[in-house]
Task: structure prediction
Amino acid sequence: MNTYMHNLKDTIQQLAKAQHEQIIAIRRHIHAHPELSFQEHKTAQFIATTLQEHGLAAQTGITDTGLVLHIAGQNPTKRVIALRADMDALPIQETNKVPYKSTVNGVMHACGHDAHTASLIGTAIILDKIKDAFEGTIKLIFQPAEEKSPGGAIGMIQAGVLKNPAPAAILAQHVSGDIPAGKLGFVKGPVMANTNELSITVHGKAGHAACPHMAVDPILIAAHIIVALQQVVSRHIDPITPCVLSICKIDAGTATNIIPEVVHLVGSVRTSNEALRDKVKEKITTIATGIAASMGGSCEVKLLEGYPATYNDPALTERTIQAAEEYMGKDQIQPVDLCMAGEDFAYFAQAIPGCFYFLGVQNKSMGIDSWVHTPTFNIDEKVLAFAPGLMAWLAIQELQHGGGGS
Ligand code: NI
Result:
């Protein structure tokens, strides 16, 4: 290891600091011009152009709007590590009063994907400047459509982004309005839940409200099903295993004096692993159909599977935590709990060892503490002074010292 390598961390930190204003400007441009999932054409163009201005040629048009950039160090085939950022915005009207407020009505970067993308562009610029200082190749993936099922990750994998060359591991960051800016959150094992849309259609027999004995009331059946489904989590799932079932919409009826024929219930089911997803589905079906039948009606249960649960490979995550502690200082790293939201990074982490970590962006003194997916979500942009360098450092450490997955 030469002196340059010894000082590599300092060099990266200085490069990251020096480009801070530039990365803020990139983030603000993306923030002001948000695009919905699978429509990120201008965003993709902007990423490609910005990288080009720094002499970096990304492959574009991967599943339409995705991009991939390889930064080859010395001995490029030695080991490959992938980094991923998502690019899409949400159908939310921004209410922040900031100069870089969304210019698109009803569309907003309310999940921080603008920051993820800007940060990964910053990582690319840094890595290119220090490519003589590491061995192997770093593959940067700009992925569309994280927010909308089936998501952009699966398409990019099918398009071959995990081949030629094949990465040994993949890292991604996600902003968190729960963690103070400057800190990072890590969890080993399950980090995000799987997401499933539950739909139950209850069939009865329509009738006059005055003659319920002549009808089969599907509203009463639905009410019993809703109450009974609460036992799926509380009585059938190991209490130390995260699982949530919420009925979020009920559709039925037309008037005060008509017993309807049909009731539609929809909701969300999330678990922390795939085996549990199947068990929950089976329990919901057994309970709902049993109750409907016992009351003279019938019902159909559908569980539309969304993203799988995201699993952080424990060995990779341990190495990434150690590298993050070296870069940030030990007191800046904190453990976090599994989050019951979903993430299509899950598909990458199913294919190869993955580590998905949280970048704290909260700053209460600046009034920045909204949750993601809210109209007031924002980030403390001071994190953009280190986040791009951190990712470069993590990738290089994993190239140099990484082993396998768990
Ligand atoms: Ni997000």
Notes: The domain at 194-305 is CATH 3.30.70.360 (Alpha-Beta Plaits).
